[in-house]
Amino acid sequence: QVQLVESGGGLVQPGGSLRLSCAASGFTFSNYAMHWVRQAPGKGLEWVAFMRYDGSIQYTADSVKGRFTISRDNSKKTLNLQMNSLRAEDTAMYYCARGDENSYGMDVWGQGTTVTVSS
Amino acid sequence: EIVMTQSPATLSVSPGERATLSCRASQSVSSNLAWYQQKPGQAPRLLIYGASTRAPGIPARFSGSGSGTEFTLTISSLQSDDFAVYYCQQYNDWPPLTFGGGTKVEIK
Fold this sequence. Notes:
A: mainly beta, 7-stranded mixed beta sheet, 4-stranded antiparallel beta sheet, 0% helix, globular, B: mainly beta
């Protein structure tokens, strides 16, 4: 079945780095745009980053620009988020999500991976 | 950046009743709006895109309407499974993609 599985979250000190990964299965990964979306504890959804199906276009939110980098490996069906210079306000559940074919909504979501930035 | 505002923050509804959720955009987003449902401890689920088109597998009791700056998600007869938080998201003018703050639908 169509599935996204995130990994790589954990506890990191302020200023540190983490690399999140999202493994896709059950669909042709290389045909779909992908997103990262995060949710701070008890808060709403915040879009973080986008990458076009072929990797030719990427966008990141201003709140993470210059610190986070989205990438993908279509041969491995994997989406990544390299997070550097982490701050306490980056603490959140991070979801990867598939871009909907009919819109710029997100039609398939992973279960999320938790990132905690604390000393 | 387009700001999405949802109201009310919390909606108390009895099972079987109709629920009406609102979402307002700070500028026109045409019909480029999606709705999501999120239950505690779960990832969001796409309900509606294009303001009014149900995603595959979404029950007909969910309907979306509106265009421009005013949108509505209606749940015609609330089932126990529908108590959750609902988010709207615009994709007309981005980046950034922006979400509303959410409406929690709780049991009255």
